[in-house]
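Input sequence (101 aa), recorded before submission:
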Amino acid sequence: MVKKDVMIRFLGPDDGGRPHFPLLRGYRPHFRVGQGDLMGVVLAESDREFGDGQYQRVTVDLVYEGLVDYSALDPEVHFNVLEGLRVVGDGYVIGSARQET
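Predicted structure, token format:
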């Protein structure tokens, strides 16, 4: 499975985000670059728990590789984190992580 290392931060409720932060492993948001298509991911690895407005380094699995075009997720590209159509955070790509077969 293809993986990407990214930095993510979640918006607090005062900024239109969620009142509680998601569990890290297994959380399945969508990423969107600009006004592009939604790209489903799964959080696979993280160093620590999320805090309001703090960037957190995580590894995500690109779960629909081959069905969804993830080519926009190049290093240094910024994206929104969505739950449905609601923006709950943002982030940027650090680079590609190891590949699993």
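Checked by second reader. The chain has no helices and seven strands.
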